[in-house]
Amino acid sequence: MAVRELRYFGDPVLKTPADPVTRFDGTLEALITDLLDTVDAPGRAGLAAPQIGVSLRAFSYNVDTEIGYVINPEIVELSEETHEIPEGCLSIPELWYPTRRATHAALRGVDLRNEPVTVSGRDVLAQCLQHETDHLDGILYLDRLESDRKRGALREARGKDWFWRR
Catalytic residue among 74, 132, 146, 156, which? Predict the structure, then answer.
């Protein structure tokens, strides 16, 4: 069990599509345990493996009473109904911007035994599923903002002490 150090906006691992999980072994089990331990803190709804520096398609979630993980997730359903909802990110701390998301989302993936799992939800859980799957595709929520809002958000993020610089 370990709470892992987070990677921050500017770190290339966050903009690189993650590799599919192909080995279901003790190393993967340790990664999932770390994802679950790291997301288990107040104010944390989801955590993708790239956010702790591991470029594999896996994430954990902790929304209301639903806690879990998904390996190799793929979004299979998004509602046509959308809303703009305040969104933040552990890898972009302190910044919250209204982001357009589907109000309902469903995804398919697998568990540690490589058995199929489906997770679906509305509102905040739907937002989390979309946000974390985006991370695995190298997309940050800032990438989803309208152009004027995105420019301001990027400028603000680059001015923060936590912004990753080489």
Answer: 132
Q: In the chain, how many domains are there?
A: 1
User: pTM here?
Assistant: 0.95
The CATH number of the domain holding residue 120 is: 3.90.45.10
| Binding site as annotated, residues | 89, 131, 135
Number of residues that make up the chain: 166
Residue 43 token pair: 């104010």
Give the C-alpha separation, 85 to 113, whole Å: 35
Residue 1 lies in a domain: no
Average pLDDT of span 138-157: 95
The pLDDT tens digits of the residues spanning 50-66 come to: 999 999 999 999 999 88
Measured distance CA(20)–CA(58) in Å, rounded: 8
Please report, in range form, the residues annotated as the binding site for Fe cation: 89, 131, 135
132 catalytic per annotation: yes
Q: 56 is in which domain, residue-wise? A: 12-158
Q: What's the pLDDT tens digit per position in 93-141?
A: 999 999 999 999 999 999 999 999 999 999 999 999 999 999 999 999 9
